[in-house]
User: Fold these one by one.
Assistant:
Number 1:
Amino acid sequence: MIKQKSSPAPQRGHPLPHGTTILDHGINFALFARHATAVTLIIESTGKTKNTLEIELDPELNRTGDVWHIFLATDDRDFSYGYRLDGEIDIKDQGLIYNSDQTLIDPLCQNITGRRWGAEHPLANTPLCRLTINNFDWENDRPLKTSMVDSVIYELHVRGFTQDASSGVKHPGTYLGIIEKIPYLKDLGVTAVELMPVMEWDENDNVFIDPETGKKLKNYWGYNPLSFFALKSGFASDPDNHINEFKTMVRSLHQAGIEVILDMVFNHTGEGDYKGSTSSFRGIDNPIYYLLDENNHEYLNFSGCGNTCNCNHPVVREMIRDSLRYWVMEMHVDGFRFDLASILGRDRKGHVLANPPMIEIIAQDPILRDTKIIAEAWDAAGLYQVGSFSQDSRWAEWNGKFRDDVRAFMAGHTNSVANLATRISGSSDLYQTSARTPCNSVNFITSHDGFTLYDLVSYEQKHNLRNGEDNQDGDNHNISWNSGVEGDTDQEEILNLRYRRIRSLALILILSQGVPMITAGDEFGRSQKGNNNCWCQDNSTSWIDWDLADNNKGLLRFFKKCFALRKNNLIFRRRSFFTNGLEQEITWQSLVPGIENWSSDCHTLAFLLQGKGKGDDFFIMLNGHRSESADFIIPPVPGKKSMWKRIVDTARIAPFDFPAPDKAIKQDGGDKVQIKAMAAVILQSM
């Protein structure tokens, strides 16, 4: 049982900093709760006998403004704590919903009692917050500060990455499991892993049932945070040591030259609407932490998940800033991707702000200055800000228009060539303002949300029945083409076309100007059997099948070669947009040099990239026809008496798709090259 050094009478304590502060002579607790009329600190010992100490804070002695605080003079550090708050229950007029029987999580708690994945989460029943004792040896770890122009991002789910037995790791589904795959990641050529949410959430809060098995589904993805500070303990091999395991993973990735980017969910919490479970924010100060309708105080739902965080309230802004600082300073992460980031720009009524303070604070905070900040520049209410999220050059964006335009061309859609050219050259229509560059565009074709790359070329309709929502969930606008047969097939012609399209899609993604991002498993053809919303599939549907890395080793080789080609040639990693001076840096054509075709019915595009030295020129030909070959005429190597060599042909299989230098076919300017349907060919000057 926690014992105080002196009198058991409460001591005043300090209102700042919020949360818990361990001092030499005790512990300070501070909690913001403007509308509460009473606050009780609950402390529970962690031994076999659960002794509980309840300290009711004196509103005169233990309150400064809106902050309740108390100091405990104690040597004890091994206990759990939480808060019980009392106040009015008045949803309609004030949005208040206090319940003095609930034990709540401290919003700034960095450590929630560890539990294994799938174990019951005892929310509202017992104190869950723990003190964080920092005893980790970082071994002089420092931020890598890899420039955006040199970055290659690899999105993964911590559990799904190694949970399948085929991963062969000692600690499947964990932070330590990722460490065992570092040699693979390094060999692939990625410079950063982007982890799907690792903040604590309750994976058991899903109400849907798998109609085939009758079993309750999990909240697998984790976009339902209970805390913005506390790490997910269920991703650790030892849940009681989860913080050090995460730090070990970060340190090991840094030693291999790989950065760690976290997917942050500040747009909503796992408390849902008024029917949801209260774990923290709602029970502490509902109208402060959430956007509420000013007439009936129902939740404004711009997230699609029942509630929306009040991100531009000063108290919430401070909490978000402190969360980001914590992950950088204490956990050594290198950057953040902000889920539904457009919500960060809404005011307390949900209106879109012209100059959102939250977005500016993140970009200009001195502690975060070296971190990568990436916005998913839209929300669930239809606000779409790709290219206009922020004029601050610090902000990069998931370029949803790149995804859509590349998909359209490689599905044979009309009116797609001009858009494709804009995306390949860095999306200047979106980012050529306010000192921004192609590096403000994070280019992707697939992500966790939607089809995998293999499914993109194998399905035209979503197949989400096993999610338990009668196939009503998930996006209907996939811009996909199944290559002639929906789903699984053994037809060799269809399979060849699918893998040809995957190689062409990969080539466009990796060699376009901007920052490429791929999703784990796409590099060797992972499938989710047409499920485009696997948020609830904690099983082989979502887990990475590592046998495919061997079965489709030719495709994996192709990805590695593309990443190496990008890394070894600065022309694919420009820090500025193309210019059209005396010597054009990029020249477009359709089938014939000097003749462009931007018509809606055109399906062919080629472009010449002019370098500055020998072997620095590239000519790339793309055929977006579904079934027709196309004959391209090659231009001469610019200003040089030399030949071309064919270094990539996505219509061929490994190793001929990316042949060894001495096996490359030589071509002269004026030669005609036939490109198969949905194929791409790259020539490099000799």
Number 2:
Amino acid sequence: MAKKIDISIVIVNYKVKEYVSNLLSSIYKAASQHTVQIFVVDNDSDDDSVVYLRQRHPGVSYIENEDNLGFSKANNQAIKDAKGEFTLIINPDTLVSEDTFTTLIEHMKQNPECGAAGCKILNPDGSFAPESKRSVPTIWAALTKLLGLHSIFPKSRLFGQYYLTWLSENQQAKINVLSGAFMFWRTELLQQMGGFDERFFMYGEDIDLCYRIQETSYHIDYVPFTSIIHYKGESTKKGDLRYIQIFNKAMYLFFDKHHSFRYSALFRAVIFSAIWLKTIFSFIFSRLRAISQIAADLVLLNISIILGFLIRFQFSVEIFSDLQSFQFLWINLLASGIYLLIGGLFGLYQYKTDSISTPLKALLFSYLGVAAITFFVRNLAFSRLSLLIGFGVSVTLMIVLKLLQINAKRNQIYAKGQIKKSKILLIGNDLDACELIPKIHARPDWNVEVLGWVQINTVGKDEDLEIEQDMLNQKVILNPLGSLSQLKDLVRAYHADQVLFSLTTLSYKEMLRAISTLQGLSVQCKLIPDSRDFILGKSKVDYLESLPLIDVELALNKPINRFVKRSFDLALAVPSIALLWPLALLAEIKRPKGQHFLKPLAKYKWHNRSLFLVGVLYGHYSWIGSNLPVQNSHSKHNNDQKGVLKPGLTGLVQLNQGKLQEGQDTEHYQLYYMQNYSLGMDMDILLKSIFQPGNNWK
């Protein structure tokens, strides 16, 4: 006799396999006392999602679609085969607590007229998600939400209809609509209703399904005694025009299906026009940030052109008395047009704040375009010197602007130009610290600092001794910074940017409770699943695996890159040595034979810097390279050999000296640098070194 199934669980995946894997891990923990049937329906993710998930979760039933069928059709494929007493429709970018299933099953059994139920949904920062409890979006309810009246008058039943804001988040109640992220149904009822209406591709299908329960003898309950966490739409791009169109089309489809018969054709046309007008405005507002960045770039470009003109004529007041001077404002218009046109080809309209190269390329071609056009169109002729000055000013201002924008943002681990390291607190036990901290430190492309770890619990004595020895070997600090109950104070005290929760030893319920204590703090919470091979954050998955580095086709070995690096070294060294040549000559005379630099280093730091500059001129050293040979050595360094990194004043290794293990990590960082070398990387490392000086002659 087949074993009775308590819950059938349906998950639709579209290119979020890591989130699905993490959700499945939380489901296993929550289902420890229940029998579950799990379906994962893949909507043609085209990223080997099913292969990836099958390896990690073989006990799941997988349905592979050759096309993206949408949310409704994909769910219905599994709903018709559901054998559980209850069926859970759940989004892939969620996590359930250990008591979620038990709490809802008990509620459904104690309330036989409850056909579906939802629970408290939390945002990644621990705040309450208002979509946990909703009403049917009537025209009035939608209007009050659009105008923000539900926020102004949260206790009003008239203005707070959309999210039922007059109900406390901790108050159990009958509601009209569940969030599609988590819908706990009686399977028999769900199948009798035919599942989702497949005319809804994505969005609106949850509202429609809940609305149709009114045709039955059942109702929907909001049960706040358990909670889940929802990352909200990680498989969609909410600023994308197609997303906005699908969302607003779904809203009209719902209106047309359930309400249009009550209104005249003219009123329906007004509603239709209003929805599509909202589509246009939604798209514009979603692009406001990008538009504002481009507008700031254009203002900077035009100011630079005018400054070039003023500097060229030494800020002479007389030039403003001549109205003919203002004819050159056409140059500003021309440069702006070229900037937008050429910038579009370089992806200017898609670039993020942390992109410096894209606007700089657009600037270069703008000035080159203006110079070329004004050369052939004589009535637009413009001072070439003014253009040259303006270009220098614009490049300087653009770099400063982008650096300010980059460093104003927190929680970035990849951004070039970010001077401040992203500070991380790890939540786990000593075994987590032993394994995860070295993994994080082994990533040369991450600009992070692990502050330490916060203790969850302890392990057995024998295991403790073994872990302690292992940690000492790996140079991981054994003592925790504090306990989980002190997390909020630790985040404040250490100014942490990110908190990483290791789910190997931490329960989901404990994690949700800890996250909720961090509300109001500017800190990002991320999860490390049981597999310990990636970090899961909002809209971002960062793998903890070491980068695949190979000792072939190193970028630094390419002749053009070697030439660029040598030119960059000389461009900085020549003017510097011109100022310090007497000191360099004296230092060379005083330097003992066979010794690279004068000892003690701190006492003779300026002499040694002069010796370094001379070494750069001769090609023995580079500004960015491996550790300088500060010890006595009589060997000559064959730094011209391919694959060998010259000693440098700074570099990836020097910037990360405190967190690297001897040997393998150092070689890994150096190989990463040589494989990914670019002039931009050198400039980024040099910039960070100015504000984060290494150990060379402080």
Number 3:
Amino acid sequence: MSTTTVQDGSGARPRPSFMSSIGRRQLEHYPESGMRYFQLALVVVVTVVLYYENYVGSGVAPQLLANLHMSFTYYVVSLAIANGVGALASVAAGLADRLGRTNLVVYGVAVTGVIMAFGLPNSHSKLVFVTLSIIIGLVEGMVLVATPALVRDFSPQVGRATAMGFWTMGPVLGSLAVSVVATQTLPTVNPDWQGQFQVCGAVGLAAFVLAFIFLRELSPQLRDQLMVDLKERELIEARAKGIDVEASLQHPFRQMVHADVLVSALGISLLLLIYYTAVAFGAVFLETVFGFSANQANGIGNWNWAVDAAALLVVGLVSDRLRVRKPFMVIGGVGAAVMIVIYLLKATHHPSYHTVALIVSLLAVALGCAFAPWMASFTETVEARNPALTATGLAIWGLTLRIVVFAAFLVLPAIVTSTSPLVDQGPRVQALATKYAAQLATAAKLDKSTSAALAANPTDPATQVKALSEISGKSVAQVAAVVTASTVYAQQVATLGAVDQATLLQAQAGNTAAQASAVAQIAKKFNIGVPEATQRLIALSKVPQSTLVALATSGAAVQSAAAQLKALGAVPVSDLSYLQAHAASVQKASKDAPHQWQDWYWVCFAGAVIFVPATLLMKGRWSPKKAKADAEAHEAVVAEQLAALRAARA
């Protein structure tokens, strides 16, 4: 097979051709800047796609649950199980220190892409959908470890926060992709939830092709060292020849299970409760509590994730420039706690779309300020223990995060009990309430005993009279008089409705002109001749005066009530039964939901508060001045070692 030659700092060496290099994923030499940036960018792209796949269901959760007849509780428990499985996968992904990172990522993307494109859209039962979703969670648990390990491998500590800022944009941009695609396609292009998964699956398969062809990783000898600055590349390659990889990997979890690793992993996991709540239930919360449409809810998500992504990148750059992590983590943790309180207080009000968008954007800035420096500091804390066990340290974080999310998703339905009726029965109750608004208004006028009697025997005369009395507001005697008159004097009542009242009164008083006008009105109304119209007017004059008074004062109201009662009787029994069974619980849930969500967001607030002191155990300086002095001292040592290495080579 043909080879080409390239030149780098160590001289000329053969490079395999393109096709043969696909199966050879390890780099035996630390890459030049262009290749390094390309690998970092590719890892970020793959991470974005994987999180897009993992979160796509949140953008269409209400529609998805309704279509698959899945209760909210069933959905939340399935998410908890997926995170539990992801926790186990995170532990297994710790083997990436021994077996490598790229194969976990490449073939993980292949599996999820196929499931997203063909499996989930064709799921016709909730069991199949949940099973496939759990497989997605399994892969995501491994990627959570493998991809940040790759970012660490290709980024020295100087510049680590920027690199991790890009990586942490993965889950954020994945969430943004969900919101953007849903916002742009749900109204017209892909109105069904299946379309969202098909688009996502196509993107996932494209990412697999890119990763399969181009993704690489450092050899164990290179990645198992601590690298502070790119200037150390020559030293790293020289040391790699003498590293005993097997010895450095002995008892991996025993080397990593220490307070600085465990407590910091727990702290960030608790802070991220608010993030995972937004990912899984953001659309549900915004639709059921604030009454936003699905499109509006995803639009607010656009603001949230876009601002978060920008904050991650900017804060990462500033953190690297100042060479400190802890001040940013503390500022971010405190800021997140403050914004969570503001957000939860709005739950019992009716804020505007732009108000909510502003609040979630400021919350996103705070989370971005904390997370990118934390990722850099955590990998540096792990490196201080053993740089060869980076994936193991990240596996401990992945395990901790998934356990926290697993527990949270099991607890949430017990705290926010109102969401189940709002999500499960709310949409149909709302649709029926809109469709039968007039009929429900009629039903609301009926006494419970009357409604029950009508359901038992809708043709019973006494029950009908009572119902008409309650609907019209007339007494039972007045209604009975109108009903009797309408039965005994049916033709006369019809005639009465054909003549205006003023003309009729004058005609009854003997006014000849009024009588002629009344006959003309009757003839026109019924399309009959004058003789027959005259007979009808004569027949009307024979109706008792008391009956005419009853018809004049109550007839119109009773007739209107009769029409309303008839419309109510035309509503399908199944629809009325559903409303009777669930309308009250949905109304109660709608009232309780804001307060219950407030309780949950107080839990998220507590997580943000706990995060702040947890950062104290991590590596890194508080003062930029002291951090700069440390860097200068390290550079002096590196310069001395490089001089010695070059002298030895000479």
Number 4:
Amino acid sequence: MDIKGKTVCVIGGWGLVGSAVCRKLMERKPKKLIVTSLNKEEAIEAVENLQKEYPNVGKNFFIPWWGNIFTRAEFKDLPREEILNDEKKRQLFISDILDELDNTALKKTAVYQLLSKYKPEIVIDCVNSATAIAYQNIFQSSIDVLREIKLAKTNKSNKLIETVEKLLCTLYVPQLVRHVQVMYRSMTAAGTRIYVKIGTSGTGGMGLNIPYTHSEEKPSRVLLAKSSVAGAHTLLLFLMGRTPDAPITKEIKPTAAIAWKKIAYGEIKKRGKPIELFDCPPENAYRLKDRLQILLPEFGKYTGKNLKSVFIDTGENGIFSKNEFEAISMPGQMEYVTPEEIAETVVYEILGGNTGHDIINALDHATLEPTFRAGVMLDAALKKMENLEKTFGVDSIAFEMLGPPRLSKLLFEAYLLKLGFVDMITVEKTDPKVLSKKLTDIIFKNSNLRSSIISIGIPILLPDGKTLLRGKEIKIPPFRGENEFPINQKNIDLWAHDGWVDLRTSNMKTWKNRFRKIFDEIEKIPKGDTSSRFMRTKEYWKNFRDIEPGKVVGWIFTVEELGERMKA
């Protein structure tokens, strides 16, 4: 893809890699560059630095944006601690990551508002998402909950609910899944054409023997959680890359330390704050007895000075001393890769080059795809099942184990149409009221069929739209802790769509329209064309003289519901 004249959004553009990506992009003359960072000061600083470096592009070429890309827009500028310590905000955050993502919720997210405002054709995500999510430390949150449970049992604490809610806020998978859902839907709505993620291995390319932890066991649980999130993120992006309406999706995953941004002498800061120098004269030494306290706020004497030294700034990975950097970058340790090399790889991939470093492309080639052998054997397997159906006098329609319930519902509806009218042509020509009555008669008379349907959790909605044939359990609406739901027309229509055999006239009209669309699809095939261009021909549909529920529902999922597989 040509970068020239395109609007590009660099998420995390203030950081080490993000800054290098921005500079590399400028060689390709984009139309506009949106540069984001978590903090306002960082985003503005990044834009100011770029403006100084490229003074001839105009004042509105570089646009700063700041905020947390993992939250709703109203929380994007709040520290995580403030969200978690406020009961109302905390519960909204839980709802944001655990509830279903509808359009209302989507439009409240920071990412959606960012992308819908600027509509970038290219999005490059340089945020270390795995670290941002995994370093919330679900292990410590779990320990806090266990401690509060013990205290609650003896009535020594009333913080159990709050602690449990905070644990819910740290759940890795819901946060990651929601983030990918929001990115996908936001980019699709904004018309983004290519998305490049700068990922991580979580360990700088090292294995389970990695010696670098923050005083945890080796290997660190938190570090391995980071790698787990990074791997899960990659597979979610792998799925995005197989989604027809999604942007072209790529991931570059450096497996080394990334360095560097600056080498200098000055104050050493940790989390933005100077490291204060304390002293412990020998005469004030701490005596080891009974129990050791980790925190002693009053112990030690502040010297009035802050730590200063020579350092190398490795961006998001922190500030290292000369010897720390030498240890971590020596052969056999993490070693390192420069941000400029990463940026060059990113830009080359956007332009359509093949660097060999796109993880999504690598997975495409490394995974085992559908095989010719399986395709050849499919017909034999289906014929074997058909023969068994005839031998035992049964029709194998649906068991509701594959899911979703909509699959079973559609298969049974197509089967009922087959029983009542044999072929697609007859169904398409028959009045919807006649279709509805005939299918209802079949259900009333065929108790075995009726029992097969309702016993797997698929209820049958009768033509009046108010009467339901059902068993002890129904799959739609799904049970998620609530056993009762209000009955109204909106809910009935939703449930019938998702997993009820629907005998109403309105649904018969839907089936007639489906068959009409299949006929139209065939009519568009040029007469006499016997090439390999078209798969679903008249012969595929047996000249419409039959209704094969599996084929029909496969067509519905592929064409009507846009669920087609994109890659082999």
